[in-house]
Amino acid sequence: MTAYDVTLLQSEFPLLKRMIALEQVNWFNPNSTSLDAARPFIGLDDKDIKDASERLSRFAPYIAKAFPETRLSGGIIESEVAEISHMKANLETEYSIKIPGRLMLKKDSHLPISGSIKARGGIYEVLTHAEKLAINAGMLSEVDDYSKLCSETFRTFFSQYSIAVGSTGNLGMSIGIISAKLGFSVSVHMSADAREWKKKKLREHGVNVIEYTQDYGVAVEQGRKEAEKDPNCFFIDDENSQTLFLGYSVAGERVKAQFKQMGIAVDKQHPLFVYLPCGVGGGPGGVAFGLKMAFGDNVHCVFAEPTHSPCMLLGVHTGLHDKICVQDIGIDNVTAADGLAVGRASGFVGRAMQRLLDGYYTISDETMYHLLGQLNKSENIQLEPSALAGMLGPVIVSDAADYQKFSDLTYVMADATHLVWATGGGMVPDVEMKSYLSFANNLTEVCNNT
Ligand SMILES: *Cc1c(COP(=O)(O)O)cnc(C)c1O
After folding, report:
1. pLDDT value for 344
2. Where are the domains of the chain?
3. How far is the CA of 340 from the centre of ligand 1 (A)?
4. Among the atoms of ligand 1, which is closest to the Cα of residue 277?
5. Identical topology for domains 6-114+244-448 and 118-238
6. Which residues are within 8 A (CB) of 226 and not within 5 positions of it... i.e. 6 or more apart?
7. β-strand 233-236 against 208-211: which pairing, if any?
8. Could you tell me if the CB of 284 is within 6 A of ligand 1?
9. To the nearest whole percent, how much of the chain has pLDDT over 70?
10. How far is the CA of 143 from the centre of ligand 1 (A)?
């Protein structure tokens, strides 16, 4: 039984009616605060990010050796930032709106190893676990050259341990690939919506893939249960893990360094808006935390969710966080945006981050597909549907006069940078991508004919 009355909830929060009707909605949180005011509620600080960043540096020689595609970046898993001015012009025409400032794309879609934002948090958590095991066994010390982990000795050592995770696809890909590479025995519990090619790829890497006919919540629960039975099994808890969160957060200082190199200013006169697709919340929450620590109050983060899975908006807006799921109010959690098909948000992320997020909006699957086609045409960049969720953000923020006024941004919008976080798609097989694109094309024709 739920602890609240849905009818009452709707009268208290009228926005819910429109969410239930699956409209594209947006909400700018009137209770967001400065970083300093929010700090005590986060429970994590700069020191934790620094620790994560240093751990990734220690592992860089191992990553470079184990994954040759990262050799050029010295084993640092990072993506580029690209300006997408044609796409900007496209959005302006289509939505009849001027988007002041520049439009950029953060291409986590093309991160090495697993081709999604999960190559940040997922890989980081497995590395953290491996490091702990090896140090405790007296086989590794922090000053060692970690490339020595690329050996039969270590693979045999790690093979005594197993790792389990529940996933809609991309987290399983990251955790599966890195765990199998290190030598762990790894099980990925996949929800019904996970793509066939992702399961196939994982099996090719020697990962044990367990399929469910239910959604993400069930896959996670089953993974958790399996792990509880085995003391040598480590369960990666996407809903509550601070380690995952910190892995994502390192993105903040990385973007800061990239912007510096590109000559992009972020200060009071040059605000930065970042649009992040949100599933359970760990990825976008961790990135937003890192960005806040890097840019302070001059960065403004907005979360994007499918109209069919608006779990974070629901949790934060009602203040019920993980005590409510979208199914409780009659929303089905069925969306083509794989990574975002989550009905119940992370309570940890919602509670830690709610004061630091400026707003939330929902986007329909049709709009995501449409934008997927537009980005392909205007910039020749191919992403998976979920990764387009953030693309509507610049339109929404440019149109939100009240929000701009409330946040004292009206007069600096012309010098803004809009950064759309592209979260996945780099490893989608050609045939899949063709079918995404033809679906997008057909949609456009339907729109034009009506
Ligand atoms: C996982 C994922 C997200 C969101 O991350 P969460 O931590 O689940 O909020 C966004 N986009 C893609 C492509 C993903 O795989």
Report:
1. 96
2. 6-114+244-448, 118-238
3. 6
4. 10
5. yes
6. 164, 187, 189, 233, 235
7. unpaired
8. yes
9. 98
10. 33
